[in-house]
Amino acid sequence: MHPYRTHSCAALRAGDAGTTVRLSGWVHSKRDHGGLLFIDLRDHTGITQIVIPAGSSVLALAESTRVESVVTVTGEVVLRDDATRNPNLDTGDIEIRAAEFLVQSAAAVLPFQVAGQESYPEDLRLKYRYIDLRREKVRKNMMLRSQVITSLRRRMIDLGFTEFQTPILTASSPEGARDFLVPARLHPGKFYALPQAPQQFKQLAMVGGLDRYFQIAPCFRDEAARADRSPGEFYQLDFEMAFVTQEEVFATLEPVMEGIFREFGNGRSVSPAPFRRIPYTEAMAVYGSDKPDLRNPLLISDVTEAFENSGFGLFAKIAANGGRIRAIPAPGAGDKPRGFFDKLNNWARENGAGGLGYIVFEAEGGKGPIAKNLEAERVLAIREKMGLSDGDAVFFAAGPEAEVAKFAGLVRTKIATELNLIEENRFEFCWIIDFPMYELNEETGKVDFSHNPFSMPQGGLDALNSQDPLTIKAYQYDIVCNGVELSSGAIRNHLPEVMIRAFEIAGYPESEVEARFGGMLNAFRYGAPPHGGSAPGVDRMVMLLADEPNIREVTLFPLNQQGEDLMMGAPLPVEPARLKELSLALNLPKPKPSISSTPDAAKE
How many secondary structure helices (H) and strands (E) does the chain include? Predict the structure, then answer.
């Protein structure tokens, strides 16, 4: 017999009754029924109940063994009687009557319990992540992640893609975040950078004729943590294709995304391919976001015209100064108490707005602070434009166009959440397309790239030479699911003369472009195919599929919000000898002096 196990803890069934087996795993829980001891034994597959009767030679040892100790149990498989069968366990028809009980590794007192559904502080869970991984929900998330990656890899290979690995030690790349830098010991004063994305390498693979590349790529960005963003590393399904149009990139990724979310979505509906295409300007105007949640049925309307030269002076002044007024419907909200509207008004102020005006529609006309000062025919025009009925309400956001669009999007989400309008159990995908190539930097007043500087401008070199830069759109696109941006992508700028001109418009002279991107530019000069791709985030996909609000819940060993590994103690200081070997000297910030709370010290 195998020294540790003949079966896993989820393998035995009624048909195995009468056989002698050996199982190994963790003591999940113990129940003492007056000398009759029951143990739930757990491994990575599931749980089997162990019973140790009174008088057994192993009873004393089993009773003294703490939960989460690792044990090996040998015994006979017996059927449970009808009263004790557990339909919630795969092994619920049987139990093991223990004849031998061996402690392989005794557990100390636990920092938190594995069994049960209790919540524990995140920092405690991250410090003891190896214990946290034993909990059923966390383990299921990790298994889901592995299965999703396996399915992604299979689907890409089936589509004719080949997996390649790009370098981890590389040069700094302008991906929009800080690099993690690695000192080069053999080249004092110089540094490698960990890749924020394999962007340049996958494009160079296209120049090399590899045609259809993909990898499950690790990416590293030194940026602050968010619920949907890790502070250090993340993984993405990175792919690139030669000789393709934007629509062909979409047609490649859509069945992969639809298939993954159908395979692992637990019966939730998935929007079928082809996914909806929404131009960026429409997304900002109608949804107030370039990553709209299409499960939310509310649509934003521009009602600036209804307030121009109107009796409602505040909005009339905003309209006269070139601002916009956006209206967000609230179906059925007219029946809500006054406190509902006051709560939203306070929320708006907390989010930097002056407040949140509204109109409630009733049979006799509009009600509320705005309706009191706005002409009745204008109130009616707003109601008709938005298709609202008696008992509905409308909220307003007003201000400069760029600001009001984003705030209206926040209001849309808030109202839909408060009114329970966002449909659960659905995955709604869309593409956001036609991003502007450039934007005006408000601080400098100069033209700057608005998104990916390596995207091909629509209209190519002719557009760059003849159009107002702020009117040029790019072959740049994002794929969005349920309000979460899964990926940015683009048809790439593969022509040196177009790239140099595009950067020139953004204030980069040719000499600087050559210095920073000379490797890729030179490659393009030797014949580069038109190419494009995308890179959906694996972590965010799994987060959506697992219905988790935080990306750390689907990461095996995550950093905390401050970018610290509480389990391994990283980051750590380095001894002086190692710094000397790397030709590094530290110039640490001085600690802030502590301020005494005594009155005399405060005076000093």
Answer: 19, 24
Burial of 594 (0-12, 13-18, 19+ CB in 10 A): exposed
Distance CA 38, CA 526 (A): 73
State in Å, rounded, how far the first CA of the chain is from the last one. Answer: 79
CA distance 499 to 487: 23
| Residue carrying the six token digits 């195919």 | 529
The answer to whether 46 and 9 are in contact (CB under 8 A) is yes
pLDDT tens-digit readout, 438-447: 999 888 889 9
Chain-centroid distance of CA 527 in Å reads 37
Q: Check: CB of residue 474 under 8 Å from CB of residue 433.
A: no
- In the predicted model, is pLDDT for residue 559 greater than 70? yes
Q: pLDDT tens-digit profile of 252-269? A: 999 999 999 999 999 999
Q: Give the Cα separation of 374 and 383 in Å (integer).
A: 13
Tell me if the bond preceding 337 is cis, omega within 30° of 0.
no
- Omega of the bond leading into 292 within 30 degrees of 0 (cis): no
The answer for residues whose C-beta is within 8 angstroms of residue 482's C-beta and 6 or more apart is 293, 294, 295, 426, 427, 428, 544
175 — pLDDT class (breaks 50, 70, 90): low
Q: Does the predicted model carry a pTM greater than 0.85?
A: yes
